[in-house]
Amino acid sequence: MRNGRRDDAFQKWRWQPRRCDLPRFDAKALLEKLRGKRLMFVGDSLNRNQWESMVCLLQWVAPWDKKTLVKNGSLNVFTLQEYNATVEFYWAPFLVESNSDDPTIHSIQNRIIMPTSIAKHAANWKGVDYLIFNTYIWWMNTPRMKVLRGSFDKGSTKYDEIDRPVAYRRVLKTWARWVEKNVDLRKTMVFFMSSSPIHIKSAGWGNPNGIKCALETTPVANRTKPLELGTDWRLFAVAAETARWLNRRGTPVHFVNITALSEVRKDAHTSVHTLRQGKLLTPEQQANPAMYADCIHWCLPGVPDTWNEFLYAQIISGPRKQ
Fold first, then answer.
1. Is the peptide bond before 165 cis (omega within 30 degrees of 0)?
2. Rounded CA gap, 241 and 190, in Å?
3. 3-state class of 43 per DSSP?
4. Which positions fall inside the Trichome birefringence-like C-terminal domain (predicted)?
5. To pair with 183 at 20 to 30 A between CA atoms, which of 41, 50, 226, 249?
6. What is the DSSP letter of 143?
7. 322: pLDDT strictly greater than 60
8. Looking at the domain assignment, is residue 230 inside a domain?
């Protein structure tokens, strides 16, 4: 709102699940659950968006001189000293190694992945008490993914192009095998967040004359037919199937379904009131929403708070970990 947004209704909507109630988010209760523990978000900028939400939801409990934020490359660590607890974010937009792994210089159009190489990133995830993974938006640049033959470390440059869902399945198989082999279920809870939708094509919610999500101030009201926002439900299905596969094998993973509920929130993106490459949009850029409106990331307070309410409900009702 300091960046010029005038309406504030986007902060006030709440999600009401069918046939149940979400518990009210209680920061102190969650911090007692996190006492002496680490909670880490792993993934892309949407998971960073959710990490920022979680930090905002928790930080007011701690005195100003009892909390710190340290950013060190791919890892951001927010520490609440009175609880000896950390809320962390680790940048890995594809979970596996890619040419987009630099946490600051990663706006690469020609994205290349190594779908079986996870160990370098995953070394930073071991021993964490609550792991929240995602990977989606970085897959949506092209219909086919470039898969490296060989290794970045060895200077390999040749790649194959593979259909997006096939490559996604290969990556999540690698991730699932890592979870199965490395996560101590007596200590750690694992979550996988489903796809965060975008609102770039306004015709998808019945406003063909709109300019992406710019000027939208209310959620989608008419839900008589599915929204056509370009969400790749094939990737959603692969992620849900992978979580079920792990659960059948005795490795409980909580698949957190945020996609459909977030699709209706066309009003809740940062739009032209945003940062681009770390800088506020200029007045000239704000006047050109067709080019500059961010209809991927979310305002805070807002939709990611709801996602964290889902996490809160699972964590607070889960078994007490060692």
1. no
2. 15
3. strand
4. 22-313
5. 50
6. S
7. no
8. yes
pLDDT at 165 over 60: yes
| Residue 294 annotated to the active site | yes
Scored b (16 or more CB within 10 A) or e, 17-31 reads: eeeeeeeebebeebb
Whether 100 sits among the annotated catalytic residues: the reply is no
Distance CA 54, CA 115 (A): 29
- Could you tell me the residue range of the domain that residue 189 belongs to? 9-317
Residue of 199, 269, 273, 297 with catalytic role: 297
How far, CA to CA in Å, does 47 sit from each of 52, 74, 220, 284? 9, 13, 24, 30
Is position 322 within any domain? Answer: no
Residue 2 lies in a domain: no
Rounded distance between C-alpha atoms, residue 27 and residue 316, angstroms: 11
Exposed, middle or buried, 64 (CB in 10 Å: 0-12/13-18/19+)? exposed
List the catalytic residue out of 45, 100, 196, 262.
45
Catalytic residue among 44, 101, 129, 294: 294
Quick one: tokens of 267?
């009003």
Summarised one tens digit per residue, pLDDT across range 219-260 is 998 777 789 999 999 999 999 999 999 999 999 999 999 999
Domains contained in the chain, number: 1
Q: Does the active-site annotation cover 297?
A: yes
